[in-house]
Amino acid sequence: MAILAFSLADLLASPAVSVLTGVVAVIALLVFLYPDRAIFTRARSDVPMEEGAVPIVGHFFMALKGKNRARRLDNHIDLIKKYGPLRRVTIWPIVDKPLDLIFTNNPLDVEAVLKDPYTFIKDSKSDNTFDEVLGDGIFMSDGDQWKSARKLAANLFTIRGFRDFFSRDFIDTCDHLSEILTTASNQGLVVDIQDLLLRCTMDSFTRLAYGKDAGALSMKWAAKNGRMVMEPNAFANAFDTAMKISFQRGAKPLWWIFERLDGTGKQLKEAMEIIDNFAADVLVEKRKLIAQGLGKSEDDERYDLLDHLLKSTTDDDEPLSDKALRDHVLNFLLAGRDTTAQTLTWAFMEVSKRPEVARKLREEAMQAMGKDGKCTYDMLRQLPYTLAVFNEVLRLHANVPMTGKTVTQDTILPGSRIPVYKKNIVIWSSFAMGYSPDLWGEDYAEFRPERWLVEQGKSVMKQNTKRHFVFNGGPRICLGMNFAQQEGTVFLSTLIRRFDFELVNEDDPSKWGVYHPDPSKRQGRYDETVTLGLRGAVDFKLRAI
Ligand code: HEM
């Protein structure tokens, strides 16, 4: 007995046991201090904490598991119904700073956040997720860096040559697509409209950005199992891969470790090589032309973004570096390419389910341009119903569905009347706001383009940037809003007038985040990317009219 008592006392006095006891005591203290949230985040009772938090690490495991990711936006709407317009999530990503996320669905909060891009910053560089592909371009910057990027881009949009080039370019691209669709229709082939529209906008935006077409819509195609299948385009594929991998980092704690193990790091590197080589080649060609005195002037009918940037200077009157040129161009490509193509894809999907909407679109297009006429820039004013359809599509499928801003100093959110503290991240969802009865009335879930029409249907209500944030708002409002609406109107009016679109192959489970044999119970047709694309192919059978 004496021997046993001696050994126990010895054991208790041993250094290993002392360390262990210390660790247990520290953990117990931390569990006591942070029972429902990540370590180093503050206790607060004014914002409900989303369920799923564990002591010390908060919602870390929930983020790691990616629970509900397949229906993340529908899930967000469910959570708003459950908790109300405010809720909180905290995450301690082990080796980085803790995240303290405040979700709001109050438009007054969002308006205040957007109005003040100094108190609420994007802070996109802090987690390095988009470093490789977007560098220091407009989407990634805050403060003075953003101001000069914005000035450069905004100047471009006021140059007449560029504006004309832009408008004409998407009319021409739409005609090119129309020829392809006519071939598909004549041969009875199914087309993936999302793929084709992404090729269209990739070509127009590479032309607008670099003056050189990526050639995505001109790739060879073949008929395979009744479908028109176009060969992949290296530049477009590389851009998609880079954006997807960069975006997925945001939802993966410790992504820099996982990327080395799962091969995505290598894929990103290869994609960036293709993108950077394309950009570098174009730059060499442009510089050669400039050296020969053949550079384009602002009045040139094909004055492009790179021409503009090569003439522009930094705030210190220095020419832009090659890295800055590349970053600006890739940000522009991101801004305009996927957004419009995906919104148009949602539009064809919505319209194909509603013969009455298709009929009205056709009637309006026929009146404006006749049976065989082309859509022109001047005709756009005669197509209010078409623009209303585009706006209604964006209301229900906000293309930038979730946005977050980091707080730089303690302040109050004026709609919810709660404080937010330095380093909190305020998050809202334009997607969820499209489904809010408070904002849109009891028929919010109905697809009703008429809600946008004023003056007996002769014109269209402006985007209300106080309650509806699909194009952002405040000083960082989307620079391409008008262009996107024009492009949407051209494509919709031209193609719906020429073709009848029948949506097919939707019973494929791989196209849905949550599949159910009953179509009304399916969810998550959207994809996991920066913008709201569709999961998988969006197949249509066409009938020329
Ligand atoms: C349906 C089409 C479009 C939608 C829904 C859309 C939406 C948006 C949104 C929500 C933002 C803010 C993103 C953020 O949080 O930083 C934004 C920014 C921007 N957009 Fe668009 N966009 C569209 C098309 C375009 C087009 C066609 C262009 C160019 C021609 C363009 C150029 C830009 C630029 C340059 C910014 C950055 C503004 C800044 O940070 O100051 N967008 N857009």
UniProtKB/TrEMBL annotation:
**Which Pfam families does this entry report, sorted A to Z?**
p450
**Keywords of the record:** Heme, Iron, Membrane, Metal-binding, Monooxygenase, Oxidoreductase, Transmembrane, Transmembrane helix
Chain ranges passing through the membrane:
12-34
Q: Name one GO molecular function term.
A: iron ion binding
Q: Which cofactor does it need?
A: heme
The record's Gene Ontology biological-process terms are: lipid metabolic process
Binding positions (heme): 478
Show the PANTHER family listed in the entry: CYTOCHROME P450
Q: Which family does it belong to?
A: Belongs to the cytochrome P450 family.
- Protein name according to UniProt: Cytochrome P450
| Organism of derivation | Gonapodya prolifera (strain JEL478)
